[in-house]
What we know:
Layout: H1 18-23, H2 34-48, H3 50-57, H4 70-75, H5 82-97, H6 99-103, H7 105-108, H8 115-125, H9 133-137, H10 144-157, H11 163-175, H12 183-201, E1 216-219, H13 230-244, E2 248-249, H14 267-284, E3 288-291, H15 295-308, E4 323-324, H16 325-335, E5 350-352, H17 356-359, H18 370-382, H19 413-434, E6 438-441, H20 444-453, E7 464-466, H21 467-474
Parallel strand pairs: 1-2, 1-3, 3-4, 5-6, 6-7
Helix pairs in contact: 2-3, 2-10, 5-10, 8-10, 13-21, 14-15, 16-18, 18-21
The structure holds iron/sulfur cluster (2 copies).
Amino acid sequence: MSIKPQATKHIKPHLANAEQQEALGFPGQLIDNWQEKVIDLLGEKVNGSRALQVAMDACMKCGACTDKCHYYQGTKDPNNMPVARQDLMRSVYKRHYTFTGKYLPWLVGAKELDADLLQQWYTYFHQCSQCRRCSVYCPVGIDTSEVSMAGRDILAQVGMGQKYANQVIGKVALKGNNLGLPGPALKDTLLGLEEDVLEDTGVAIRFPIDEAGADILLVTPSADFFAEPHVDGLIGYAKVLHQAGVSWTLSSQASEAANFGLFVGSEQHTREMALRIKVAAQDLGVKRLVFGECGHAWRVAQNHLKDLVQGLDFLDARYPIPQHIAEITHELWQQGTIRLDVTKNAQRCITFHDSCNVARASTLGKVKGGQYSIPRDLLKASCARYVEMPSHTTQQTTLCCGGGGGLLTDELMELRIKGAAARMNAFDEVIKQHQVTHMVAMCAICKSQFSTIFPEFGHAFDSVLSLHQVVGDALDLTSSL
Length: 481
Ligand code: SF4
Ligand code: SF4
């Protein structure tokens, strides 16, 4: 299919207003000397990041990445080809930081940064979900997500921050979570869940919060407290931990696992968001730190948390620091501490969507490829009818849901739908061939995105399930009755 230049030029997120910008220490509006400042910041970023240096210097224009981005596949806008997205930054870098670019700019595609190019940065760095799929196909390992993260941070620093992500960072700082839900509202919600689960199962399962002295602090995405199907995942975690007899607690201070600092590429805000989790763990005196089903949260937690917060030495070193809830559930199942019964999911035929940030930016467990095998082991032990989507859309080459990387906002809906089309085609294939009824995910953003856009593709909004929902439904709770 032919390319459609500028097909998505009109799609961009709302700019953060002055109040939202200034709350994070950024200028309230575009500064007068933005051109000079962007160029200075670009030089600093490239000098400080090996990955960005590679992206600026090593591209051979081989073309291997051009059709690998789900946004390019769905929109055909050439600026959504990963190499072209990088070129938006590389052209300015070459103009100002390379000999050839300074004196023979036409030879290397070097460009001066003007107002139009600045707008293209804002538009197309916000049409990248930072999923890293393109990097899998790049022979020199260029990671476009590093480019879009750096671009967004530079934009915020000259007064062009994104409203959605910056607003969330402010809410998390003030209230502890994405929604600005205060502690008492969370406690009420959790009490309601205890009543619901007792009614459904006949088992008194607790959802403890702010309980000092618990062994585990569980940090979940705030969507787990109220959204569907996320809350069913939270119920699943609680059932597993109850069945295993583990002492655990949630925290009203750290009631958001997702780290939106990553979305805007800001090390400072990523660090501040991470620190509140360390403080909550210290205040509660827990021994272990565990993360719920959130891809971006796990990417930051596993790769950067210890460095960001300057150590977590007070936690029990006999356990991984931090740990993912799926690792714990898998271990408990392998040890026989919990039992799973496939007959309890007999009405379902499921497939699994590997979330980008777990599949390509982090790992699970001690075995290579655990991020692929652990969720599949749990799902196959919980449901007899399990089907894989086509192999070029799973595991390392999984497709983004279309809403990751800080793009899960209404004004980007057209992009989100077009970006999800590739995943929906793969889902349709297994529905037709195997009568699959549900797609399972283990990332809060994937779940929110799919439950919103499924109806656009003719699927019920509740055809997406949480991993721990399927596991929790299969769990044999009889030994505690
Ligand atoms: S990181 Fe993902 S969204 Fe960004 S350009 Fe690469 S494939 Fe596209
Ligand atoms: S695959 Fe890598 S080297 Fe090839 S065009 Fe894309 S970014 Fe450049």
